[in-house]
Write a structure and sequence with these properties.
Blueprint (H helix, E strand, L loop, with lengths): L1 E10 L2 E7 L3 E7 L5 H13 L16 E9 L5 E9 L6 E6 L4 E2 L5 H13 L7 H9 E2 L12 H12 L2 H34 L3 H178 L8 H37 L3 H43 L13 H75 L3 H29 L18 H12 L5 H99 L5 H14 L1 H15 L1 H33 L4 H100 L4 E4 L5 E7 L2 E6 L5 H19 L4 E5 L7 H14 L5 E5 L11 E6 L7 E4 L1
Parallel strand pairs: 3-13, 3-14, 8-12, 12-13
Antiparallel strand pairs: 1-2, 1-4, 4-5, 5-6, 6-7, 9-10, 10-11, 14-15
Helix pairs in contact: 5-16, 6-12, 6-13, 6-14, 6-15, 6-16, 7-9, 7-12, 8-9, 10-11, 11-12, 16-17, 16-18, 17-18
InterPro entries: P-loop_NTPase (IPR027417), Rad50/SbcC_AAA (IPR038729)
Protein name: Nuclease SbcCD subunit C
Keywords: Coiled coil
């Protein structure tokens, strides 16, 4: 993974900054409080979900929410932007991932868990590992916590580093597997109980198998019995069928004979009835002959009566029509006379009312025209733009407000820069003195090499003297290394060697004292050099700030000069003129209003506005100087006064305009109400006129209808005369009808008697024919009866009812036996099925019992294996940790020697006790971590941390926050080289430090500049 960009918005001291990173070493520097550690914390929060405190505290003071964006390259070599949002009100931190190339959000990630899993997969972290722990314990140890774990108690150290090296998992696995053992034992116990229960149940299998064999034998025996009974039943059924058929044939012939005999009886009864009907028909025919003449006369008279009764109806209808016509004529004649008189009176009334309405309509039309003229005039006043005299002024202020806001902000920046420059001047005022002191120390330190050479020369000389003295004491020549013949020479030179050695010892003591003093000067030199570096940086910063101050002042001057004061003066004067014009308009409206009685609105009291104070202030601003920040501040103060005064002036004007517009609106409403009232009156008159005109027309239509009715009355009189003539033709109708009715009464008895016997007479021939047919049928039926009786005699000779009944009884017994055997066989089948099901169930249980026995064996082996594994896991943690410590000790040892240039050995002992081994006074010395100096502790801790980072981190990232704490200059320089060497396989490193030891090694230097107002600024080199 590589981090290319980090964007911080409202994060602690950062307001809105973007920081770019490169591959390799990224060096982050800045003064205390500039936000160096904040960068690492932000990376921890956005990429590793780690923040050592509440996210609410990460929001910049004065802001409600913050945001972090990190642009990274993942394992798939694509760019992704990871965004983390947080605020002061909620605990939830929004976490989103965007594909930088497509600018789309990865919608499949829902919540922190999904994003965390995606990050682990994308940057190469094991899914089971914790992002927070990896960041906190391996790749980014917090400032000041490098050595903290090594100072803990044995138990705490073991807990911390067991977790980092993941060996704690072995102990956790042992503890967690305790429940596994109990679980297996519980399952084994449960399985054993089930198996014993099954074993008890399957003991019945042999008994059931024996019952099944007996059942099968019984079934076969009863099946044979059933077949024999079934055969006997079939034989009896066949005999019974033969006898039954014979009996049915006899019964059928007897039924036929009985039916024919019954038919014969019916034929005789019918013939008797027909003879009687024949006699009655002959008698009826005689009566018809006697009454035929009266019957025919009755029919003729009846037909004539119908004709004369129809004529009577016609006469009655004519008479009814005549009466109705006479009545209608009288009624219509009276109605026409009354309506004619009423119409004449209504016509005169309508003419009088119509004349009065036309006079009223003319008057209302004139009033309507006058009120419409008033309405147009008021609407022309209302549509006149009265706010344009202050809108341009407000627009001018709005257009310049952003300029003035920028000017105020720029002025604040200039003043802050001035204060900062003054503060830095006070801090670096002793810079020349420090430079002079440093120069003297450099000269003094330069003599240190000369002192070391002298000391080395004296030590060599001392060693040579001691060696020569030894040779001489042994009788050897110190020059040629051979035996010296003169013992006297050796004795004479002993005082010489003593004097020389004394002189050398005194010289060495003096040089040792001088070198100790030299070391103190060197320490002072380093401290002074650091102070000078800081002071020079501050001086450089001050020069930059002075340049920036000049630029900001010039920018401020330009902003102020952009304001067009002449335009403002013109706008004020124009506004004043328009306001006076409005005053004249108000006076004109008040004069018109005094002549309108129907309007109850009071006259408008117009208050004049004065703008001389604004004009004077504009003149002062125009004349003000802009030479320095103080004058510009005065200019901006007057501008604020101008803005406040103008705003008050505009508010007064706007308030008066609003009152004027409301007043004018009230007048317009009053005029419109009056117009509506007059319109309603005028429309009412027009509607009334139209209504009366419609009534006149209706009256004319009624008079026309009366004329039509008079013509119709004449036609009705003619119709009455015609009906009177027609009625005279029917004078004999009554007499003729009466005479025909009397004749009908005389022939009525003969007519009825003829009708009563007519039907019976007509049936005489039919009855005679039916009698002949019955006689033939009787003869034929007698012949059939004789034939059936002969056949019956023959059939009865072959049938014995007693034998037939015996067969029936035997068949009944055979059927009952078959039924009983069938039911018994069905019961045997059910028993066989039941026994088979029981056997199958028990065989299944037997199979389950066999499987359970095997499972019990497996469970037993599993329990033994689990116990073996648990014991192995229990004892594995410490050996694994020992291997890790050996490997890490070797790595840390190399790093420590590189940093310290000392012949020491770093050893990470049991319980993670960090130790240093060296030779002291020709003896091996072992010191634990708490016995080490601050520099040694920091070096040893960093060595182990680098080794851990190199071994455990697959992310290829490293973060070092102030790693040079407690280290001298030599170790700081060596540490920088060691970090670079130990992390060659890393893609990116991030180092935070005040130290310049990393300047020559870095690919990217990020300088942070503290600014309390706008937030920390970022510069990259």
């Amino acid at each position: 993974m590589k981090i290319y960009e980090l964007h911080l918005k409202n994060c602690k001291c950062y307001e809105d900054e973007t920081i770019n990173f490169q591959e390799g070493l990224n060096f982050i520097s800045g003064v205390n409080g500039a936000g160096k550690t904040t960068i690492i914390e932000a990376i921890g929060l956005v990429l590793f979900n780690f923040l050592p405190y509440n996210a609410k505290q990460f929001v910049r003071d004065g802001k409600k929410s913050g945001e972090i964006q990190a642009l990274i390259e993942a394992k798939d070599e694509r760019l992704y932007r990871i965004i983390r949002k947080f605020n002061k009100t909620t605990k939830t931190l929004k976490w989103e991932v965007y594909d930088e190339e497509t600018n789309t959000c990865l919608d499949e990630l829902h919540g922190s868990d999904d994003v965390s899993r995606w990050i682990k997969e994308s940057i190469g972290i094991d899914p089971e590992d914790s992002l927070e722990k990896i960041f906190e314990q391996v790749i980014a140890v917090n400032q000041g916590l490098f050595a903290a774990p090594f100072l803990e108690t044995n138990a705490n150290r073991k807990r911390i580093f067991d977790e980092i090296l993941k060996v704690a998992g072995y102990r956790e696995a042992f503890e967690k597997s305790r429940s596994l053992k109990s679980y297996i034992e519980g399952e084994e116990k449960e399985l054993k109980a089930i198996t014993e229960h099954l074993e008890e149940e399957i003991k019945d299998i042999p008994t059931i198998q024996e019952e099944i064999t007996k059942n099968q034998q019984e079934y076969e025996k009863q099946t044979q019995n059933y077949a024999a009974a079934q055969q006997k039943k079939q034989q009896l059924e066949q005999k019974d069928t033969e006898w039954t058929k014979l009996k049915e044939t006899i019964d059928a012939r007897q039924n036929e004979k009985n039916l024919l005999e019954q038919t014969l009886i019916s034929l005789k009864e019918k013939m008797d009835s027909l003879d009687k009907q024949k006699k009655e028909a002959k008698k009826a025919r005689d009566i018809l002959a006697e009454t035929k003449e009266a019957y025919l006369r009755y029919q003729n008279n009846q037909q004539d009566l119908r004709g004369w009764e129809e004529k009577k109806k016609q006469r009655d209808a004519l008479k009814e029509d005549l009466d109705k016509a006479a009545k209608d004529h009288s009624t219509e004649e009276k109605g026409i006379e009354v309506e004619t008189k009423n119409n004449e009176l209504r016509a005169q009334e309508l003419q009088d009312k119509l004349k009065a309405l036309q006079t009223k309509e003319s008057a209302t039309a004139q009033s309507l025209q006058a009120i419409e003229d008033d309405l147009k005039r008021v609407m022309s006043w209302e549509t006149r733009e009265v706010s344009r005299f202050f809108d341009p002024w407000q627009t001018w202020f709005n257009n310049n407000s952003s300029l003035m806001a920028d000017a105020h902000y720029a002025l604040q920046s200039v003043e802050e820069l001035t204060a900062e420059i003054k503060e830095i001047q006070n801090e670096i005022q002793d810079l020349p003195q420090k430079e002079e002191d440093l120069s003297l120390l450099v000269t003094s330190i330069a003599k240190g090499e000369e002192l070391l050479q002298k000391k080395s020369s004296l030590i060599a000389r001392k060693e040579a003297l001691v060696q020569n003295e030894t040779h001489l004491a042994a009788g050897r020549c110190p020059i040629i290394q051979e035996a010296c013949p003169s013992q006297k020479v050796a004795g004479d030179l002993s005082s010489y060697f003593a004097n020389e050695l004394k002189e050398i010892e005194e010289g060495l003591a003096q040089l040792t004292e001088q070198l100790a003093q030299h070391e103190k000067q060197k320490v002072k030199h380093d401290e002074l050099k650091d102070q000078l570096t800081l002071a020079r940086n501050q001086k450089s910063t001050m020069e930059k700030k002075e340049k920036l101050q000049e630029e900001k002042t010039e920018e401020l001057r330009r902003l102020v000069k952009k304001v067009s004061l002449k335009e403002a003066l013109d706008l004020i004067k124009t506004g004043q003129r328009e306001y006076l014009a409005l005053e004249q308009l108000v006076n004109e409206i008040n004069l018109w209003l005094s002549a309108k009685d129907f309007i109850t609105v009071e006259p408008f009291n117009y208050q004049p506005l004065h703008c001389q104070a604004i004009l004077d202030l504009l003149t002062e601003i125009e004349r003000a100087g802009l030479d320095d920040a103080g004058q510009i501040r005065d200019w901006l103060t007057k501008w604020d006064q101008l803005e406040a005064g103008s705003q008050k002036w505009l508010e007064q004007a706007q308030e008066q305009v609003k009152e004027y517009q409301k007043w004018l609106s009230d007048i317009l409403q009053a005029v419109r109400l009056k117009e509506q009232e007059i319109k309603q009156q005028h429309e009412f008159c027009l509607n009334e006129i139209k209504d009366y005109q419609n009534q006149e027309q209706h009256l004319k239509d009624k008079n026309a209808e009366l004329e039509t009715r008079r013509e119709n009355l004449k036609l009705l009189q003619k119709e009455i005369d015609k009906l009177t003539d027609s009625l005279a033709q029917f004078s004999q109708v009554e007499d003729k009808v009466d005479s025909l009715k009397k004749a009908l009464e005389n022939d009525q008895k003969s007519y009825d008697l003829y009708n009563e016997n007519k039907q019976a007479s007509e049936r005489l021939e039919i009855i005679e024919q039916e009698i002949k047919e019955c006689q033939a049928t009787v003869s034929e039926t007698n012949q059939k009866i004789e034939a059936l009786q002969a056949e019956l005699n023959e059939l009865l000779s072959h049938y014995d009812s007693a034998k037939h009944q015996d067969i029936k009884d035997e068949l009944k017994k055979a059927s009952e036996q078959v039924t009983e055997l069938k039911v018994y066989l069905e019961q045997i089948k059910k028993d066989a099925k039941r026994l088979k099901e029981q056997l199958d169930e028990l065989l299944k249980k037997k199979s389950q019992w066999e499987q359970n026995r095997y499972k019990l064996l497996v469970k037993n082996k599993t329990r033994e294996l689990a116990q073996t594994i648990r014991e192995t896991i229990k004892d594995a943690a410490d050996p694994v940790a020992h291997v890790y410590r050996q490997y890490l000790s070797a790595e840390a040892n190399e790093i420590y020697r590189h940093v310290s240039n000392e012949n020491v050995q770093v050893e990470w002992a049991s319980e993670y006790e960090l130790q240093l081994k060296d030779n002291f006074h020709a003896k091996e010395r072992v010191r634990v971590f708490k016995q080490l100096s601050g520099g040694e502790q920091m070096t040893a801790a960093l060595a182990v941390r680098l080794a851990l980072m190199k071994m455990l981190s697959d992310v290829k990232l490293g973060f070092f926050d102030e790693p040079t704490t407690n280290l001298d200059s030599s170790r700081r320089q060596n540490l920088a080289m060691a970090i670079q060497k130990s992390t060659k396989g890393f893609e990116q490193l991030f180092v935070i430090s005040h130290d310049d030891a990393f300047d020559t090694l870095t690919e990217n230097t990020i300088s942070l500049e503290k600014d309390e107002g706008t937030g920390t600024g970022v510069k990259m080199y």
